[in-house]
Amino acid sequence: MPVRPVLGAAAGSALLLLGFAAAAPAPAAAAPSESVTVDEEGRMADGSITLSGTYRCDEGEGPVFVSSAVGRPSEILHHSVGGTRAVCDGEVHRWQNTGTVPAGTLKAGKAHVEATLMEMRPSGIVLLPVVHAVEHRNITLVEG
């Protein structure tokens, strides 16, 4: 296969992606009325982990979710622990996510959790993630 058509297609694709990025809205700063928190204790049972907390958000243009990830406090690698659809009406709501992590990666004791309140905002033909609030917290994972 000739190299020039492949390079041309690659360059065209890169320009198209840059066009989408330029048209994307800038990340929104969290409004003072928007927040997400993480409870100080998470649960481990039968190979699954449950994390919880609260959130508050204002109405968005697209669906909003609370996602969470957990890992050991001293490690960069975190494991996703599900997501919950948020109700954005300005009121405080509880969230709870349950998921599994690879066997042996976490044990009862100290852990680090990141919770993110994120909107999937329509922008042309794509949905772009817009972060509304983030919380980092060291917690304790308990069995049961």
- Helix-strand category: mainly beta
Distance between the termini: 59 Å
CATH topology: Immunoglobulin-like
Main beta-sheet strand count, sense and barrel state: 8 strands, mixed
- What is the gyration radius calculated from CA atoms? 19 Å
Please count the beta strands (DSSP E, at least 2 residues each): 8
Number of domains: 1
In DSSP terms, counting alpha (H) and pi (I) runs of 4 or more, how many helices?
Answer: 1
CATH class: Mainly Beta
The low-confidence parts are 3-28
CATH-assigned homologous superfamily? Immunoglobulins
Report the sheet-strand fraction. Answer: over 45%
Please state the second-level CATH architecture.
Sandwich
The averaged pLDDT comes out at 82
3D shape = elongated
H-E string: HEEEEEEEE
Helix fraction by DSSP (H/I, runs of at least 4): 10-25%
Give a quick set of tags describing it.
mainly beta, elongated, 144 residues, 1 helix, disordered N terminus, Immunoglobulin-like
Descriptive notes:
- It is a single chain.
- The protein is mainly beta and 144 residues long.
- It has a single domain, classed as Immunoglobulins (Immunoglobulin-like).
- Helices cover 15% and strands 51% of the residues.
- The protein contains one helix and eight strands, in the order H-E-E-E-E-E-E-E-E.
- It has one helix at residues 3-23; strands at residues 35-36, 41-45, 48-56, 64-71, 79-85, 92-100, 109-123, 126-143.
- Strands 1, 2, 3, 4, 5, 6, 7 and 8 form an eight-stranded mixed β-sheet that branches.
- A hairpin with a 2-residue loop joins strand 2 and strand 3.
- The protein is elongated, with a radius of gyration of 19 Å.
- The relative contact order is 0.26.
- The model is unreliable at 3-28 (pLDDT under 50).
- This is DUF6299 family protein.
- Keywords: Signal.
